[in-house]
# Entry
Amino acid sequence: MSSLFHSHRGGYVFTSESVAEGHPDKVCDQISDALVDAYLKQNPHARCAIETLATTNHIVVAGETRGAEFTLEQLEKIIRDTVRDIGYEQEGFHADNAKISIYLHKQSADIAMGVDANEGNGKDEGAGDQGIMFGFACDETKALMPAPIHLSHRILQNLSVARKSGKAKGLGPDAKSQVSLLYEDGKPVRATSIVVSTQHEEGLSQAQVRELVRPHVLAALPDHNWMCDEAEFYVNPTGQFIIGGPDGDCGLTGRKIIVDTYGGAAPHGGGAFSGKDPTKVDRSAAYAARYLAKNVVAAGLASRCTIQLAYAIGIAKPLSFYVTTHGTGLVEEEKLERILPQLVNLSPRGIREHLKLNRPIYARTAAYGHFGREPEKDGGFSWEKLDLVEALREHFPVTTRVSAPVV
# Structure
């Protein structure tokens, strides 16, 4: 198993994309996670598996919950507030006018029986489903993320701030970016092409949108020398992008899992994150795997690290734990596989307690990536902390790799 980045190659181009908070699928992710936050705020041990569909002035929410109760009116308010915060008050998709249909029911007793701990017979909390989860980190950026996805996110975050502050008047919430980077000797050196498609008001020409977007792209790059040639800078390549969001394209929760993670630069187990409470290992174990991989790289033990975990429904212990450092490691991978699970209990309960995941911290993850973000004072993005670095250096007293990421 290896990353798509091959350090032995002299030169190559790798591409990743991101989508903005107003992309139809991201609208759905944010609604699902806003509801998860509401349930966890009422009861930190509530269970949620919430899916959202959005189309022209219609939002459908369905799934299973347990441990907290809301009226339909309360749920509808959370949904409308989320859509309004994103910026949708358009004729085809409006926070106040969209029809909302809610189909939430109790979690399956069969699933609950497998997940719940039973102190009477010594059973610990089991995984909520079978599956495989991956975590990845590399020293290409200060965030220890692959540079193409990191820059793709940054472009759209810059545009979002400008749109909401009024500095980029005429732009709408729906947007996508795509960044192709040239790698030389395994390190990114510049963009070979950049694509930005952004919704805009009627009356703005393609050239005007291009110049609205340009400064926010340049601000996202390490310096202006990273900018691609003008002929490879594509802004709204179809010509115009007036109809957007769920009015232009139906959205679904969990359909942007590569945008949410590493932009295709690392393996993905296939499970989505949004809409799931932290007993779901699709979410929590992927966070734990990123946490461990990031600390391995931050400790200077490798330039890149991939970790895989596997679980079975109802079983607490991971079925497998695999580490690869892609030939960049300064310590044996087998030793990492032995030491890392000693630093973090990788049972579902152990992960939740170590990373303190039973908190309403998830709506903020549902746009611009779950990884590469700054840990927050209230516990948000706790899986991005580097609090295992010292322990790893004690276990592996090697000369720290000097890494100077430019992004």
Notes: The radius of gyration is 22 Å.
